[in-house]
Amino acid sequence: MKISIDLSPNFSKKKRKAAEIKFVIIHYTGMQSEIESIIRLKSKKYKVSSHYIINRKGEVTQLVKDLHIAWHAGKSKWKGFKDLNKDSIGIELVNKGHNFGYQKFTNFQIKSLVKLCKKLKKKYNISRKNFLGHSDIAPLRKIDPGEKFPWQKLSNHNLGNWYQLKNINTNLIKKGTSHFFFSNLHKIGYRYFKIYKRTKTDKTIIEAFQKKYLPNKVTGKIDHKTLQISSFLANIR
């Protein structure tokens, strides 16, 4: 695939080894234009960057070389990993985001994203379950790529996990227990909550999960289907 080069100065100077790349983190730019987004990602003032950006036409530009650590994930957690910049490759999709008129991602973007992710998966031996969104690893801070991002379509290409409710083992579901849901989320990889103690931020965690797996029913409440989905995903081997 064709990839243009337009390098950003915003990366850690020490290179990492290829084996250290474990994740691909997907973002949206959340700015009013592609030009504005690239200016921000290349600005020394803002100290933020990603490895790649894909515009609305599906054109891919590399901003940071893979073996350098780009500054895209920020404060984040997933399973036993913290501050995932050092462990991941970041991909930005040009989209105005929730603050400026959230858009459906174009077919051109998703087609290019799938091609790029397949290439990275093969090159760095990245597990299919480690293709994540910014809101997965930082659910209390970030909401991108948001409920319009087609996670199921990516999973059809072995990029990220999805669920099949018809294969749910109902014996795994303990009726109405929030701690069972949060135990499932912990197994999946989510953090920033306590399994057995409820807090004010729990609703945000539930919404982050629903925006990804139940984008048409984001309530912040643990209903039966949300619980079923969490159970299925927690038990994928």
Question: What is the strand tally?
Answer: 10
CATH topology of the largest domain: Lysozyme-like
> Count of helices?
8
CATH architectural type of the largest domain: 3-Layer(aba) Sandwich
Q: Looking across the biggest beta sheet, what order are the strands in?
A: 1-5-4-9-3-10
Distance between the termini: 32 Å
CATH superfamily of the largest domain: Peptidoglycan recognition protein-like
Show the helix and strand layout.
Blueprint: E1 3-5, E2 11-12, E3 23-28, H1 34-42, E4 52-54, E5 60-62, E6 69-70, E7 77-78, E8 81-82, E9 88-93, H2 97-100, H3 107-124, E10 131-133, H4 134-137, H5 151-155, H6 178-188, H7 202-213, H8 224-234
Parallel strand pairs: 1-5, 3-9, 3-10, 4-9
Antiparallel strand pairs: 2-6, 4-5, 7-8
What's this model, at a glance?
By secondary structure, this protein is an alpha/beta fold. It has helices at 34-42, 97-100, 107-124, 134-137, 151-155, 178-188, 202-213, 224-234, and strands spanning 3-5, 11-12, 23-28, 52-54, 60-62, 69-70, 77-78, 81-82, 88-93, 131-133.
Supply the key terms.
single chain; 237 residues; alpha/beta; Lysozyme-like; Muramoyl-pentapeptide Carboxypeptidase, domain 1; six-stranded mixed sheet; two-stranded antiparallel ribbon; 8 helices; 10 strands; 31% helix; 14% strand; globular
